[in-house]
Amino acid sequence: MFRVIERCDLSFVTLLFMSIRYRKVLEAWKQAKPPPQTADEASRLVTEILKRNQKADVEGLLSFYGLPLPHTLVMPSTEAPVSLPEGILFEFQTLPVDPKAVADGDTITVYVSASEPVVASSVPKEVNLAAVQRSKAREKRNYPKADELHQKIIDSGYRVLNIQNEEVLARKFRIRLRGIDAPESQMPFGKEAQQGLLKIVQWKSLKVLVYGEDQYGRCVGDLYCNGTFVQEEMLKKGLAWHYLAYDKRMVLAKWEKEARKKRIGLWASSNPEKPWDWRKNNRRE
Question: What SMART domains does its record include (predicted)?
Answer without folding.
Answer: SNc (SM00318)
